[in-house]
């Protein structure tokens, strides 16, 4: 990456974060519009049972997440030799196409197909854009680089998601997707104008990227993200019916509850990026304990208006605190295939998205109530915390078995994994 002025660097980081903002819109806006989508595309089911229709509409969230899971490692492998800026631009084009298709889908089945297509570039975007941001920030900034891009997503949840959700409620859910497509298009133009060219990883190839999937550490870290984050998505996916059916507020309050979630996500992401580059292990363990506590508290206090807003903030803050740390851990687990490591993290996160939305929907459809996903999520986060501790114990055992160097000291880990050892 060529030398840049401070102003150009800030503009490039802002453009990359703008992409995260657009991704935040396309991922989280549907969660506040599930009742509107259910009424519009599943009228028969909605007339019979609004809870069942809202549960079925949750597949809009799950299918998008499945697109992320499928697309992230596939695109990472196929684009190993593609210059990073060119890759980011191509991914933004795919976002525009998938989001426009979502806006014009004539029935529920085609909407699901469009959401799957829109999800394909998600993971690769955060991986490639996060590495571009890390390069712009300088050495030792893997977690902060991802946090910069993710800050766009958290900002979207504070400002963009409530605004677009309100637009969708007043002008129809299709108008929301049209607005999101416009944001993606603006991002495409901004990235093309201000982000500098950056080559692919030296020696990168589809084979080297796919080789990362043979590492047990990669799969264990992915399992931690997929299981441990499910609780956050189980609650966030059904925040609209929780607001109206549990707390008893009108649908006009849903955007404001989303603001509370977004504020929490913004605080959690900023704190998580700072902590992860300093104490990665402590950040992960403390973060999962925080998720467990937040989900339990949410289930206990969401019946009241004050409790709903406070609980939503806590769930958002603890959920996103762990995000930068998980990204840094997976990149460290695949030092010779960093794009794949970053992409696998996004696949795992969206497996959590799909799993959380699906489990939450099953619990609701089974008559357990809209707060049941919070209790289930706390259990899943507990499993994630246990797997994290097991992974660290395995790392310690591997370090003790590492052969000594000629001066009698243990062999040093790869440079890209240094942050993980702290």
List keywords for this structure.
single chain; mainly alpha; disordered C terminus
List the total number of helices: 21
Strand content: under 5%
Which class do the helix and strand fractions yield? mainly alpha
The 3D shape can be described as globular
H/E element string? HHHHHHHHHHHHHHHHHHHHH
Rg measurement, Å: 21 Å
Uncertain runs: 405-422
Count of DSSP E strands? 0
Largest sheet: none
Tell me the distance between the termini.
Answer: 28 Å
Describe what you observe in this structure.
The chain is mostly helical and 422 residues long. The protein is 80% helix and 0% strand. It is built from 21 helices and no strands. The chain has helices at 6-32, 34-41, 43-48, 50-57, 59-78, 84-104, 108-119, 122-137, 142-171, 173-194, 206-211, 216-228, 230-236, 239-246, 254-276, 280-301, 305-321, 323-333, 338-365, 372-401, 418-421. α1 crosses α9. The chain starts with 5 loop residues before the first helix and ends with a helix. Mean pLDDT is 82; it is low at 405-422.
Short description:
The chain is mostly helical. 80% of the residues lie in helices and 0% in strands. Helix 12 packs antiparallel against helix 18 and helix 16 (280-301) packs antiparallel against helix 20.
Which SSEs are present, and which pair or pack?
Elements: H1 6-32, H2 34-41, H3 43-48, H4 50-57, H5 59-78, H6 84-104, H7 108-119, H8 122-137, H9 142-171, H10 173-194, H11 206-211, H12 216-228, H13 230-236, H14 239-246, H15 254-276, H16 280-301, H17 305-321, H18 323-333, H19 338-365, H20 372-401, H21 418-421
